[in-house]
């Protein structure tokens, strides 16, 4: 270290061969960048937050410097190690001085950063990982990848990676984000606590990137505070329309209007709720994006209107690849505005996707995003109400050394210029931005519904994601839950799997257990490949049909709760689906629990993830929990053994919880679970049943025991009042 220059929120520290800038933002996030790297330009961030004027760079012991902030203290040693501590002085992470080296043949410098965390720390995040949600020792690649087949827990990387880690230890929770979009790897090694008088072995993380700036954000606090800070940094999650929280049915292979009508009629005939039907690439004319096969779907707008009258929306797949044939209207219009990715010689890059030889729009150019967004007008004209983006890693079937665009392909990168090495991981993010911003303009009265197979940090601003082609099997079922939990901890709260798996034919038991899990996940969608078995509930026999109906009706009953969770996610960044340690990260038994999750604050869901099980162990957090079917009470923290018959999966309600549900008449009711004696409870309700932009008021309720009953009041600024919705109390002795 040679010197330091204090500045707003921190300052600049100079070393013999490098310099380090540290800034504490007003939202509590800590930024540092090496060798001139600043917060911008960044695809992850919206606007960079203002520096915190209270945070000051000051001398520290042994010739180092430190910045003391409200939520963390950051110290820099005279050799360049950066240490993040709690306000009480306990170290959460220590980043060793980074290393840079030039690639053979020259080019952008690569870099490596080694870090140490507490011996008891557990790692989560890194985007969608099938092996999680807890990330064991191993190497994880940061390169969005279509595996080209149905995947299971051992497959990595997958479609949506991001350099976001959530690290949970006894001392506290922190999130770390390395803001570079280049290809890289993260090597994780959990620590080990010394026995007796033995020494602890710290947990370790090594980040290696093929290029880009070495800049980092760290957020410290409770899990809820960390995710709130992350959302304030990268953008609030998009609010889905109410219908998107219902049940979706999709299939690659509907083939015709007649087949789609048959499926919808089956749902109606069996009395099964259905909120959306998704059309895959087989509804296109020769697989060409923004077209319709007029022979198989001759009256699509009329069909969409008929379905809408029955409360069912149509959702269209949208792929980025454009068939590179003159006369194709999309290709011609894109060529006219120079929309497609080119190689270093200036020729249009041609890949091969479903429609054949194809060109790829450069979504890192604002003008191209504007052109592409205008094409959604055709989809809206066909009656589609929502969109799912596929094949946008991007994927190309022909080999450029890997199933994507060549790394030498040129991209605008918002005018900076660069190649596919830098643009690859944000390609889908920019495509989602193009679609979302266009829908805001084309249908300004409605909230857009959009979810994407691939993406990057900040995807939540434009929509959600789904699992991609998860393998049909019990391991695939476990991977489904891991993906949803992990993505939520990276700030993407709306996601879900292909219920039943993408390939193959699930057994009736596997299908039902997957269906029961899906009923409690944000995106509840059945989907399968062209060659897979059926996925309609009635195809698996009368018993499965009846149990699936129960799951569907329960999902419909809980729609007001899901809508409330969606509004809270937008305002706080908290995911709908949370690990059981969310409220008690210091509880090690909960930290290692991966087969159970919280749905908001009020419900705990314990899916059945193994064949033949009719009972299962459930790890309960502290407090009283009620079985929502039997109303039997259990006291936590504890592990309890409960029944899990084929008819249902165990679901528990927290004592004192106030949960908005749909009543028998379709109106909103409050389901109140009795607080334990001497304790109070409560809950939040956001009554929104529409698709518009009104900001409904958050209703706050408190529940308390009074004699042999429970009193529920609504908390207002000027005092309390009686609830404005019917109340049903459950769990009373």
Automatic annotation (TrEMBL):
GO terms for biological process: carbohydrate metabolic process. Residues 573-659 form the Glycosyl hydrolase family 31 C-terminal domain. SUPFAM superfamilies: (Trans)glycosidases (SSF51445), Galactose mutarotase-like (SSF74650), Glycosyl hydrolase domain (SSF51011). GO terms for molecular function: carbohydrate binding; hydrolase activity, hydrolyzing O-glycosyl compounds. Residues 237-565 form the Glycoside hydrolase family 31 TIM barrel domain. It comes from the Bacteria. The keyword Membrane does not apply. This is Glycosyl hydrolase. It comes from Streptomyces roseochromogenus subsp. oscitans DS 12.976.
């Amino acid at each position: 270290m040679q010197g330091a220059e204090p500045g707003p929120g921190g300052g600049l520290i100079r070393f013999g061969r490098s310099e380090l800038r540290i800034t504490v933002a007003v939202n509590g996030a800590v930024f540092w960048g090496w060798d001139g790297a600043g917060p911008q330009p960044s695809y992850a961030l919206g606007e960079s937050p203002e520096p915190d004027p209270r945070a000051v760079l000051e001398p520290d012991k042994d010739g180092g410097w430190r910045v003391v902030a409200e939520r963390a203290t950051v110290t820099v040693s005279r050799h360049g190690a950066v240490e993040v501590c709690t306000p009480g002085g306990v170290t959460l992470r220590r980043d060793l001085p980074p290393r840079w080296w030039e690639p053979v043949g020259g080019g952008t410098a690569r870099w490596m950063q080694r870090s140490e965390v507490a011996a008891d720390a557990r790692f989560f995040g890194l985007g969608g990982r099938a092996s999680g949600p807890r990330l064991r020792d191993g190497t994880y690649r940061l390169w969005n990848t279509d595996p080209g087949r149905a995947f299971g827990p051992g497959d990595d990387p997958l479609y949506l990676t991001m350099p976001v880690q959530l690290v949970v230890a006894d001392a506290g929770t922190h999130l770390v984000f390395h803001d570079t979009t280049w290809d890289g790897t993260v090597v994780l090694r959990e620590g080990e606590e010394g026995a007796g008088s033995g020494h602890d072995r710290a947990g370790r993380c090594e980040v290696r990137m093929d290029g880009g700036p070495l800049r980092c954000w760290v957020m410290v606090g409770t899990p809820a505070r960390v995710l709130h800070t992350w959302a304030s940094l990268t953008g609030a999650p998009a609010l889905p329309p109410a219908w998107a929280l219902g049940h979706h049915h999709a299939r690659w292979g509907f083939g015709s209007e007649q087949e789609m009508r048959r499926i919808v009629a089956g749902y109606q005939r069996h009395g099964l709720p259905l909120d959306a039907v998704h059309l895959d690439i087989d509804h296109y004319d020769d697989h060409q994006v923004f077209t319709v096969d007029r022979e198989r779907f001759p009256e699509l707008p009329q069909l969409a209107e008929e379905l809408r009258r029955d409360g069912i929306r149509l959702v269209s797949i949208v792929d980025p690849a454009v068939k590179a044939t003159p006369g194709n209207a999309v290709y011609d219009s894109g060529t006219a505005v120079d929309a497609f990715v080119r190689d270093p010689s200036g020729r249009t890059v041609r890949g091969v996707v479903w429609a054949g030889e194809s060109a790829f729009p450069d979504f890192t150019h604002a003008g191209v995003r504007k052109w592409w967004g205008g094409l959604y007008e055709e989809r809206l004209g066909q009656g589609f109400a929502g969109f799912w983006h596929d094949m946008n890693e991007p994927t190309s079937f022909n080999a450029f050394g890997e199933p994507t665009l060549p790394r030498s392909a040129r991209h605008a990168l918002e005018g900076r210029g660069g190649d596919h090495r830098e643009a690859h991981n944000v390609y889908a993010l920019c495509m989602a931005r193009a679609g979302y911003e266009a829908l805001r303009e084309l249908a300004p009265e409605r909230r857009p519904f959009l979810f994407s197979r691939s993406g990057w940090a900040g995807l939540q601003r434009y929509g959600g994601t789904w699992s991609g082609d998860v393998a049909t099997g019990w391991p695939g079922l476990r991977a489904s839950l891991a993906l949803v939990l992990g993505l939520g901890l990276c700030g993407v709260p709306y996601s879900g799997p292909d219920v039943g798996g993408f390939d193959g034919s699930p057994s009736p038991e596997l299908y039902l257990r997957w269906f029961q899990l899906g009923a409690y996940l944000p995106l509840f969608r059945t989907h399968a490949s062209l060659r897979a078995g059926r996925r309609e509930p009635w195809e698996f026999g009368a018993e499965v049909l009846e149990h699936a109906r129960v799951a569907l009706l329960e999902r419909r009953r809980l729609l007001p709760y899901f809508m409330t969770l969606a509004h809270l996610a937008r305002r706080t960044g908290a995911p709908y689906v949370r690990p059981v340690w969310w409220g008690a990260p210091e509880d090690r038994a909960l930290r290692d629990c991966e087969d159970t999750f919280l749905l908001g604050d009020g419900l705990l869901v314990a899916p059945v993830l193994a064949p033949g099980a009719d009972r299962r162990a459930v790890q309960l957090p502290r407090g009283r929990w009620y079985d929502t079917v039997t109303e039997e009470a259990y006291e936590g923290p504890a592990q309890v053994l409960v029944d899990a018959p084929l008819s249902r999966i165990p679901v528990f309600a927290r004592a004192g919880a106030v949960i908005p549900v749909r009543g028998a008449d379709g109106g909103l009711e409050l389901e109140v679970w009795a607080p334990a004696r001497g304790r109070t409870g409560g809950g939040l309700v956001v009554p929104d049943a529409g698709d518009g932009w009104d900001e409904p008021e958050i209703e706050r309720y408190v529940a308390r025991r009074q004699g042999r009953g429970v009193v529920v009041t609504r908390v207002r600024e000027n005092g309390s009042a009686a609830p404005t919705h019917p109340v049903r109390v459950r769990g009373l002795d």
